[in-house]
Amino acid sequence: MHLMNFLKMINKLLKIALVLFAFSSPVLAKQDSGHVIGETNANITIEIFASMTCPHCAKVHLEVLPGIIDNFTKNGKAKVVLKDFPLDLSALNAAKISKCIATDSVLKFHDAIYSKQSEWMRGNNIDEVNLKIKKIASSFGIDDRQFESCLANKDNEEMVLKSRIEAKNLHNIDSTPTIIINNKKYTGNFSVKDISKYINKIK
Fold it and tell me: Which of 41, 124, 168, 200 has the fewest Cβ atoms nearer than 10 Å?
């Protein structure tokens, strides 16, 4: 099967899974809190909804997020919350594995996933992609047994899928990356300068 056709098929299956999951869970549980960077009681909350296979998400994570962390989380003004919004099965699996990474290493795992995105997200099938994700995860103390267990963990899968479904329901998100600041969708340029200007206007 041609790679593009295979990826299209996988994306269709993921969409079907999301629809079935939504209908099977009419009352959704509390939204996954995501990975928090900064003080949990900060007055400003910056939520970044991203897919680990999204090139624009990689750019924001690697080039914009560090400046936001330096400007706002280190001084306690804001906290950043990394949220899951997988666009395909590869992104879903990478997000599931992130749930098994030690809390103090989650950000570095995201860094590795995004910096090596063009390497691991390509493969003839999902098994090849998983092997590449496993190689990255091994640098964070995840052995083969733990990787397979994490990948098969239904709670992790449910957590990631609920994050996407609730993002759509609560914020009408349908693309990535999307940034929500204090429950309002940010619509400006995705640059440290412009996002900082927006945040500094918040009282």
Answer: 41
| Residue 60 structural domain | 3-197
Strands of 35-37's sheet in order across: 35-37, 78-84, 44-50, 178-181, 184-185
pLDDT, one tens digit per residue, over 75-121 is: 999 999 999 999 999 999 999 999 999 999 999 999 999 999 999 99
The dihedral of CA 162, 65, 44, 188: what is its sign?
A: negative
Residue 203 belongs to a domain: no
CATH number of the domain within which 125 lies: 3.40.30.10
**Predicted TM-score of the model (pTM):** 0.84
- Domain-embedded: residue 124: yes
Burial degree of 69 (CB within 10 A; 0-12, 13-18, 19+): middle
